[in-house]
Amino acid sequence: MELWNNMDQWILENESYFLPPVCNKMMHKEGQLKVFFVGGPNQRYDYHIEEGEEFFYMIKGDMVLKVLEHGSPRDVIIREGEVFLLPARIPHSPQRQRDTVGLVIERERAADELDCLRYYTDEQCSQTLFERWMHCKNLNHDLVPVINEFLNSEECRTKIPGKLSFISEAAYSIDTETTLHPPFNLNEWLQRHRRELGSPGSSRQLFEGKHQSDILVLGAGSHCRRNESYETFLWQTAGSSSVLIDGARHDLDCNDTFLVLEEQEFNISNTNDGRTIAVSMPAP
């Protein structure tokens, strides 16, 4: 498994995967964090529900993330250069256009966690038409059979719930209480906090409020951290840094990434203008 990557080079080398019918490619899939890039066009009619959060960043072009907020449908537009953190248990349906590329990060499911793929009777999501609950180890592999089952179902043909709409009890309820924070431009955020992050040893949470995920922007100077039963994805968004792990040094320039494995301690030293986003997603 390649722990170091340059994001720009990696996207260029894998650009053929961002076209139909695949539309995505995993950078990291073997461990606790799932880091992948998605292209388009990719129009989906299903809504995905999971117990973990999802981090989105649009590298090229815009996307629409259809969600149910407070139980009602809403379009979240994530524009080029913007980041967004989707809370757990929010039904969501990504819609992507041609010639776009986005980064998505989510975590591995615990052994007792279930995902849901759900279809609604109409665009207002007024009634569930069809759903399946499953333990999801591989998104591409595990969701395709459910999609095909629905497309060949009587429920899909009639748009009326039937005897096979539900074959198991729901594992949990969707979140109908959380108000979503809007996407925001990452570079503008870094500029607003440049003075604070320019202080040696400084850091700041990228997203306000309480979250499962720990998405920290590391500023100038040295930072010592330790992973427990989770991984950390490092993304050098400005300047340069050096990462020391078990006596080995790894240098990061702008748009380089590095995956720190579970149970590893790491020390990262940023230049004065260095900014590193550290993404960790511990299971709750």
UniProtKB/TrEMBL annotation:
InterPro entries: 3hydroanth_dOase (IPR010329), RmlC-like_jellyroll (IPR014710), RmlC_Cupin_sf (IPR011051). The keyword Oxidoreductase applies. GO terms for cellular component: cytoplasm. It comes from the Eukaryota. One of its GO terms (biological process) is quinolinate metabolic process. GO terms for molecular function: 3-hydroxyanthranilate 3,4-dioxygenase activity; iron ion binding. Keywords: Dioxygenase, Iron, Metal-binding, Oxidoreductase, Pyridine nucleotide biosynthesis. Its cofactor is Fe(2+). The keyword Transmembrane does not apply. Catalyzes the oxidative ring opening of 3-hydroxyanthranilate to 2-amino-3-carboxymuconate semialdehyde, which spontaneously cyclizes to quinolinate. This is 3-hydroxyanthranilate 3,4-dioxygenase. It comes from Ornithodoros erraticus (European soft tick).
